[in-house]
Amino acid sequence: MSKGSAGRKRHRAGSRGRKWLYALGAIVFGVILFLRVEDTSPQRFALLDLSEHPPGSATPYVPEAGRFPAFYLVRTEDDEVFAIVRLAPESGCLVEWNEDEGLFQDPCDGRLYDRRGVPVGGQGRALYHLAYERSEIDMVMIDLGRRVPNPHM
Fold first, then answer.
1. Nearest-CA neighbor of 83 among 110, 111, 47, 51?
2. Which residues, in sequence order, are CB contacts of 84 under 8 Å at separation 6+?
3. Distance between CA atoms of 128 and 150, rounded to whole angstroms?
4. Are 57 and 99 in contact (CB under 8 A)?
5. Per-residue pLDDT tens digits for 78-135
6. What is the pTM assigned to this prediction?
């Protein structure tokens, strides 16, 4: 056997070993990703009474310990309810509600969003919403750990 063929065999064996290592890493990552324990702690959910939120209101909330995103609970005149994340997607600043204009405003870049979190003029990305469930007795349970794309875009 020549020196050249022994070197090629070692190289092939080394690449097979790396392929197994990569495959094992992918399997471990997949197991961690798909079998992780879901956070179901009580702090992850906010239970709000809609009787305290009249139609046309936007109420700011900051969950305890800053663990989950600050949000606005919006109740429109048509009795639609939204939980809108206060973090602006472009600037990263906390949007503020302007009661007089009925709009959210990003204080960093001045961008305006309607009460559903859609950018006024159609430019830019919409504000994220939080997943929620509304009961028949005017209660809303908001999942503070689950952002969803704005359904109005």
1. 47
2. 71, 72, 74, 104, 116, 117, 127, 128, 129, 130
3. 5
4. no
5. 989 999 999 898 898 999 999 899 999 999 999 999 999 999 987 889 999 999 999 8
6. 0.67
